[in-house]
Amino acid sequence: MSAVAAPVLRDATAADWPLIWPFLRRICAEGETFSYPVDLTQEVGRGYWMLPPPGRTVVAADAGGRVLGTAKMNPNQMGNAGHVASASFMVDPAHAGRGVGRALCTEALRWAAAEGYRGMQFNAVVASNTHAVALYRSLGFEVVGTVPDGFRHPRLGYVGLHIMYKSL
Asked: Cβ(90)–Cβ(24) under 8 Å?
């Protein structure tokens, strides 16, 4: 397999949404890795994903401008818990396994540190999503708790839902 060029990461624009929506819809409809509704509508999905400040949404694109994946970054909570960030990532399944998720997660960590967050917390990592769990662990995240049977997987039944954290 030949080396794949690192994706170009940039802030998402309204023009990117029609490029994000097809794979976001597919991932949600499969119901295996996100707690979003499997029948998510485009309008609701846009509201979930395309965040205004202080959040941020980015895309990872190839040299030709094709969107390979996306991430959203935001405060995990408000008020006195607003110093911890969170993020979510979706990679177009056609481009999985090429480092897009790692690039997006690395950018989210860079952004959070630059914005002054003290840590990053993922609230709902499906335990059976072993690729995501391994990626996050390789970047220094730890499972700090698991909600037993917290996610109803369409093929595996009830599986754990990890809370993962990394200090910045």
From this structure: yes
